Amino acid sequence: MTVPATTAASLDDPALRERFLGMVGDGDEYAAVELTTSLLDAGVPAQQILLDLIAPTQARVGELWAANEWSVAREHAATAISERAVAAVAGRTMVRPHRGRVTVACVDGEWHALPVRILAEILRLDGWRVDFLGASVPGPHLVTHLHQTGPDAVAVSCMLPTRLPRAHAAITACRSAGVPVIAGGRGFGPDGRYAQRLGADAWAGGAREAAGRLAGDWPPPMDDPYRTPFLGDEEYTYVVRQRPVLIDTALRRLAGAYPATGGYDQRQQEATAEDIAHILDFLAAALYVGEETIFTEFTGWTAGVLAARGVPAAALLAGLRLIRDQLRDYPAATRMLDAATASLRDA
């Protein structure tokens, strides 16, 4: 496969990105790997291929799934091809470590590993010895690894706000082991505002920024690792502990609040149960950090996903109302539910 000279100098060409998207969407591993290695042969830096081709293509894959243009199966297959492309680039670009050692991992319950894999490769190309631990690393196992290897930093990723309580526990545990933490991922909020609240030593909006932070004045002075030991209050605790009851009660009452669900088949019923569970998980995360926008942004996004699948906003509004009815004695939770309801109605 040949790469045009104009493409070798830059990956801004939308046509090239569309070609790569077509390859991963068709499950064409051979073509995707051949394209990335051809770009390397043409002189395109590996960092540019990872960050300006593979990463934005994967973001587009997620958008296509949300718009119901791609199935879950196709999205998973495309992700696997992107991972093979990353591996192909990594296999062709060996850099001897000269900076130090970094542990890179997703927090417990976080399964979006490809962005973290790209970060690991960017840091490796920048001269770091990288221990890439992959998706959903339990906190105790992560700390054990730190004691065994003694890295200069831990990079933790959280793509979904629902993982913030576990991210908080991991950050506190890592810092108590004497290892500074740099956080990244959309789950930490716009500009990483929740990362600092959860005690992280630094935050990076992307792999380039993370590499720059680690290559600069690092490690930062460490203060008390337990300065933010716990953020959740009694409302958060109640929602988490009563989650199964809240879900079951909402499902039992749903047919009365939204009669269309009475004709749902098994698959639709399971999807509805998952949606209600997600509502509660995001509500709990919003309560944990005291940030209403976590919940309202999620419900707005969910409304768009459901609309793409032919489910009207009335169904989501009914679910929110059924949950609110059960949490009427909890002011912060009801305030967030009311805000989400108002936002959906305005939209």
Automatic annotation (TrEMBL):
Any one GO BP annotation for this protein: homocysteine metabolic process
Keywords annotated in UniProt: Cobalt, Metal-binding
GO cellular component annotations of the record: cytosol
One protein family per Pfam: B12-binding_2
Alphabetical list of SUPFAM superfamilies matching this protein: Cobalamin (vitamin B12)-binding domain, Globin-like
UniProt GO MF annotations: cobalamin binding; metal ion binding; methionine synthase activity
Protein name: Cobalamin-binding protein
